[in-house]
Amino acid sequence: MHALPPDWQNTFDAYNAAVTRRQFFRQSGTGLGVAALSALLGQRAFAANTNADPLRTAMTEPWKIAPKAKRAIYISLIGAPSQLDLFDYKPALQGRFKEDLKDWLGGQGERLTGMTSGQAQFPLAPTVFKFAQHGEGGMWISELLPNIAKMADDLCFIRSMKTDAINHEPANQLVYTGSMQNGKASIGSWLAYGLGTANEDLPSFVVLHAKHSSPFSNVQAISARLWGSGFLPGKHAGVSFRPQGDPVLYLNDAPGIPRELRRRMLDGLGELNRRSYEQIGDPEIQTRTQQYEMAFRMQTSVPELADLSAESPATYELYGEQARTRGSFASSALMARRLVERGVRFVQIFHRGWDQHGSLPRDIAAQCKDVDQACYGLVQDLKQRGMLDDTLVIWGGEFGRTVYCQGTLTETNYGRDHHPRCFTIWMAGGGVKGGLVYGETDEMSYNIVRDPVHVRDLHATILHLLGIDHERFSFKFQGLDQKLTGVVAANVLKPILA
User: Fold this and answer.
1) What does the buried/exposed string (b/e) look like for 298-335 if buried means 16 or more CB atoms within 10 Å of the residue's CB?
2) 71-257+306-496 — its CATH code?
3) In this structure, are strands 391-396 and 423-428 parallel, antiparallel, or unpaired?
4) What are the residues whose beta carbons fall under 8 Å from the beta carbon of 404, sequence distance 6 or more?
5) Which tens digit of pLDDT belongs to each residue from 22-74?
6) What contacts 119, CB < 8 A, 6 or more positions away?
7) Residue 63, class by beta-carbon neighbours within 10 Å (0-12 exposed, 13-18 middle, 19+ buried)?
8) Among 59, 187, 189, 356, which has the minimal tally of Cβ within 10 Å of its Cβ?
9) Residue 276 pLDDT exceeds 90
10) How many Cα atoms are found within 13 Å in the side-chain-facing hemisphere of 450?
C-alpha cells in the first residue's frame, strides 16, 4: 500500500471545509441537531452498533403496535397470473365460448390497452382447465396447482384485489412501492426501516430472482426501483442475491489482499468517513460506512447461508428436486426459508414470465409447474419449524387478466390482456386466517361485487400484521411526511386477521 503524504490531514480538512450552500444547511440542520441530541442522550445516541441510526433510535416510534408476524416473504409473480385460470372459477362461462363482448365492454367504461383496443371482436374465452373444491372451506382451485390446493386450509384468498394501473411498470411500482411515480421507497425498504435488523451479519431486506424453466415465456422486464430505498436511507434498499455465481458480487477478498488487511483498510476508511460526517453532517456518509461493514461481515455469513449441502433429503422431497438447481424457483423458496430463519426481515422472490397475451394454456401450465410444489414446500416447511405463525407469506402479481381473448381464440388456445379491475392473491401464516376466501367478483371475473381491496389496503394490512400502524408510519422528505400508503385512505382488512 502507498503511504499517505505527510500533509494528508491538512488536505482532508481543507476538502471538508469547502462547504457548499446545500452542505451548510444540512450541517446546520443535521449536525447541530445531532450535537444537541447527543448532549441530551449521552452515549446512547451514538452506540457502537454501526447499523443503528442515532436519530431514529433516539426518537419515539408512535407507529408501533403489537405485531402478529416478525418477518415476511413476498412471492412476486411478474407479468400477472390469470385469476380466471387459477382461482376465480366461473363455470357459467363454459357455455358462452366465443361470444363477442364488444358491445358489453362498451358499457363498462373500461380502459383497453393498445394491444387489444383495435380488435374487431372481443371473444369470451372460458378457461380450458378443470377446477375442484379443496379444504374444509371448499375453495375452488385450478388443476394447475395441485400442491397449493393441498394446503387450502392454510391459505387466505383475496379474490377482490384491484389496482389503478393497466400497464406493467406503473402497476408493479404501485404494488411494490405504493406509488406509480418514480423515487418512492419499496415495501421491503419500509419494513427494513420500521423493523430494523435481527441479524447484524445479513441485510434486513433480501431480493431473490428466480429463473423460470420455460424458454417460451414472455419475460417481463423489471427495474431495481421495485426493491430500492427511494428517499429512505440507502442501507434499507433490498440486497439482490444472484441466482448464479457468487450470491453477492465483490464479497471475496481480492487476490493478495488478506482479510486482516481489508479490516485495517475499512478501519482507516471509517475514520475518514467519521471526520467527514462531523464536518459535513451528510447522513449518506454513515450509510456508506454501514454498507462497508455489512459487506465485511457478509463475507462469513453469506457462504454459510448459500451452502445447501446440509439440508436433509426430506427437505428436498418437500420442495422438489428443482431445489437442488441453483437459481430455480424451488431453490429460491428454500433460500427464503433459510434467510428468514437467520433473522432477515423481508425476502422478496421475483418470478417472471406470467405475461401471457398468447399461448396462455401452454405457458401458464409451465409457470405453475415451476412454483406449485415449492410454494407448498415453503409453507409446510415453515409450519414444521414452528415459524409459520409469525412469518407472513404473500403470493400474487400486479393485476389480473381479461375474460376476453387477445388474438385468435380456439378451443385449446387463447391469450388474455391486462385487467386492473380485479385479481386474486393469497396469504398464509403471520396472523392471517387460513381457509378463508375474501371478496367476490361478478360472473365474468370483470368487476368486484363484494369487499373490494385496493393495493393500498393490502399494504396497510401487511404493515399492521408486522406491528406497524400505517397511518402514523412516515418519513419526512422534502418537507412532506411520506407514507407507503400515501395520502388516500387505506384500510386494514380486519376480517382476514386471525
Assistant:
1) beebbeebeeeeebeeebbebbbebbeebbbbbbbbbb
2) 3.40.720
3) antiparallel
4) 101, 105, 116, 122, 123, 124, 125, 416, 417
5) 444 444 433 333 333 333 333 333 333 434 444 444 345 889 999 999 999 99
6) 406
7) middle
8) 59
9) no
10) 8
